[in-house]
Amino acid sequence: TPGVQRNGFRLDPATLVRAGFGYHREGRLDAAAGCCETALAQAPDHAEALHLLGLLRVAQGRAEDGIALLRRAADAAPDLPAVWYNLAVALRAQHHDDEAIACLRRAAALDPGYAEAHRALGATLQAAGRLDEAIDCYRQELECQPQDAARLNAFGMVFGDAGRLHDAAECFRRATVLDPGFADAHSNLGTALQRL
After folding, report:
1. Which partner for 156 in 24, 84, 172, 191 could form a disulfide, CB atoms 3.0-4.6 Å apart?
2. Model-level pTM?
3. Which residues of 29-55 are buried (b: 16+ CB within 10 A; e: fewer)?
């Protein structure tokens, strides 16, 4: 595919997307979007350009446009967990929770070590009142990050919500061992032990 000429240099879609990511990091969303649009004019199914432009559209308040672009990115690159994760985040923000759950399951299946996907899936399931499934997701997240005191504390809260106070207390206890100064974990441990 011939690239765009700028100052005598050829800018192919991959180069344009890299420039777009750079603009995105600088907070220059319109410039980043322009790079993606130019890349897509050359390669309409360029997964990274679709992905970034989808994220940009969501950030610019154009959620439905962003979701459509993220869907196209997922179609173009179905094996990229980050695309499925970001599509899920956008869907969940628009209250499409069932679709978000399916996308998060796909992201976690593609990369079992993707702690953020397990965390987001757990949170979505928890919000839907599906506590047993949420607990399974949080457990998988903790397998990815077993030394995270904040996550152990949050996991303990889910156990507490589910009425599993012994499990909650164990999570809080582990969190206080990892971070002895973690006041919330100490407080939560005391509350869980009182409720036993």
Report:
1. 172
2. 0.85
3. beebbbbbebbbebbeebbbbbbbbbb
